[in-house]
Amino acid sequence: MFPQPISPTTGSLALGSQRPGDQFGAVTGHAGLIATEFAYKKDAEIYGEDEPADYVYQVVSGAVRSYKLLSDGRRQIGAFHLPGDVFGLETGATHRLTAEAIIDTTVRLVKRKSLEQAAMTDVEVVRGLLRMTAGSLRHAEDHMLLLGRKTAMERVATFLLEMDRRLAVAGMMALPMCRRDIGDYLGLTLETVSRALSQLQDEGVLGLSGARQIVLRNRQRLRGMDA
């Protein structure tokens, strides 16, 4: 079934002129595939757990969270997908997690079957898909270690360094996700995340400007916590 957008953008576009380092654009452009853009409002579902994995997605703007609801009602966020990130690339026939737009978000997508057919005849497409899959596996392994072996403060430090690497512009990062999202990603309560951020602010490690604007003032201290 074709995904149901909140509001479609201008339609289909070829991805031959991708940004540097854009593996998704490189693969689809090399294969001559067409991607379609869709816009989703804040908190809109892009796909649900156990739905057919018929498409592969890339974030154009905004941010996406992928998560699983546990049997006790808690939510475990597996990843935050930011502009340029690829998601929905599954090994099975269905999605293992639910994906939602965190804020107003635009994604582009291609049919999974089209990628698989291109991979059958083009080794470069295979290599590109393997690189994207390997990147997802690395993130999953890092996340597993973070949840299993680190203290609450170490988890927050690791998260801040990750977002600093992926989001920081002119020394400041604007987080698209709320503190409850951060807690569900780190396996912590909202209160624990808030206390950790306040403590880091009091110690001069970071500066807070509003709920989601953060300036890191002592990255070396954070790296020491993340070691």
The gist of it:
The chain is α+β, with helices and mostly antiparallel strands and 227 residues long. Helix content is 39%, strand content 27%.
Could you walk me through the main structural features you see in this protein, from its secondary elements to its overall organization?
With 227 residues, the chain is of the alpha+beta class. The chain has helices spanning 23-31, 112-119, 123-149, 152-167, 179-186, 190-202, 219-226; strands at residues 7-14, 34-40, 45-47, 55-61, 64-69, 75-81, 86-87, 98-101, 105-111, 172-174, 206-209, 213-216. The strands form three sheets. Strands 1-2-9-4-7 form a five-stranded antiparallel beta sheet. A hairpin with a 5-residue loop joins strand 5 and strand 6 (75-81). Helix 5 (179-186) crosses helix 6 (190-202). The longest helix is centred in the middle third of the chain and has 27 residues, at 123-149. The protein is globular, with a radius of gyration of 18 Å. The model is unreliable at 4-18 (pLDDT under 50).
Structural class estimated from helices and strands = alpha+beta
> What is the overall shape?
globular
Q: Overall mean pLDDT score?
A: 85
Termini Cα gap: 45 Å
**Strand-residue proportion:** 25-35%
Total of helices: 7
Q: What composes the largest sheet?
A: 5 strands, antiparallel
- Helix-strand topology string: EHEEEEEEEEHHHEHHEEH
Spans with pLDDT under 50 lasting ≥5 residues?
4-18
Largest sheet: spatial strand order:
1-2-9-4-7
The radius of gyration is 18 Å
Which range best describes the helical content: under 10%, 10-25%, 25-40%, 40-55%, 55-70% or over 70%? 25-40%
**Got a strand count?**
12
